[in-house]
Design a protein that fits this description.
Distance between the termini: 21 Å
Number of helices: 5
Helix content: 40-55%
Structural class: alpha/beta
Largest sheet: 4 strands, mixed
Shape: globular
Order of helices and strands: HEEHEHHEH
Radius of gyration: 15 Å
Strand content: 5-15%
Strand order of the largest sheet: 1-2-3-4
Length: about 140
């Protein structure tokens, strides 16, 4: 899917930018089966990717709240020293966790880093087309 392709691009860009190595086979030693989008077990980094373009709304907001909670839980169970990253593909989406809302405050309190990786124009257009098709199927 376009979403998966965009997520892969974002993770590769993040790896290069931060000098990380995400291991697709890595599993966190947590009994409840928490699976972030990417794990660098050597550098102790967990990442959740949000590959949507544009403003977030409806169920998308719930996913972001859930991701912040998931990242906080990972650190609580595994101990301090884990770097928690929420990575967005657009400024509009990232704004949701950078403003004055309680969700943005939660991200700061739980020390969740917010990163932005812009997609190349062709990827971005494909994601937007996929999002538009999704909205036609599931009007919000």
């Amino acid at each position: 899917s376009e979403q998966r392709i965009a997520e892969t691009h974002i993770l590769k860009s993040l790896e290069r930018a931060l000098g990380l190595h995400f291991d697709p086979g890595a599993v966190l030693p947590i009994e409840v089966g928490v699976k972030p989008d990417a794990i660098d077990p050597v550098n102790k980094v967990v990442v959740e990717v949000y590959a949507m373009v544009g403003e977030v709304k409806g169920g998308q907001l719930q996913k972001i709240k859930g991701d912040i909670l998931k990242l906080a839980l990972i650190e609580k169970i595994l101990g301090e020293g884990w770097r928690k990253i929420l990575c967005f593909a657009s400024d509009e989406a990232a704004k949701y966790v950078q403003g004055k809302s309680w969700v943005a405050e939660a991200a700061r309190v739980f020390e969740v880093e917010v990163h932005l990786v812009h997609l190349p124009a062709d990827h971005e257009n494909n994601v937007i087309s996929a999002q538009n098709r999704q909205h036609m199927v599931n009007p919000t």
